[in-house]
Amino acid sequence: xxxxxxxxxxxxxxxxxxxxxxxxxxxxxxxxxxxxxxxxxxxxxxxxxxxxxxxxxxxxxxxxxxxxxxxxxxxxxxxxxxxxxxxxxxxxxxxxxxxxxxxxxxxxxxxxxxxxxxxxxxxxxxxxxxxxxxxxxxxxxxxx
Length: 144
Hints:
Elements: E1 3-7, H1 19-26, E2 32-40, E3 42-45, E4 50-53, E5 60-68, H2 70-79, E6 93-99, E7 107-112, E8 124-126, H3 131-137
Antiparallel strand pairs: 1-5, 2-5, 2-6, 3-4, 3-8, 6-7
InterPro entries: AIG2-like_dom (IPR009288), GGCT-like (IPR013024), GGCT-like_sf (IPR036568)
Protein name: AIG2-like family protein 2
Pfam families: GGACT
């Protein structure tokens, strides 16, 4: 059985928790890239990583959809420090992701990791809809 996941931040290719590299390190089956997609939400900036807050006001967050084995979902839970029934910043939920053309299907039900808005702390709102593009364009903090 495989599962679709939507990733928008550090689990994306080339980022610090790159899903493909994390799977390879653990000897897990590789994720199959499905395509670019978006989900309802807005981004916040925690510094080295983003958070996604679900909204229903038309804003969307861009990311990638992968098809994964259940063992890889367990690894993603570990990376996101998600434990069902316990309070944590990230929660795993289901979302309808809208695939970008030329994908065969237009929408897929995916697992994803939005944040609990009550635990966002002082994370700054981001106007951008794509974490990677935003991170690459923002100035480096002083001292780096």
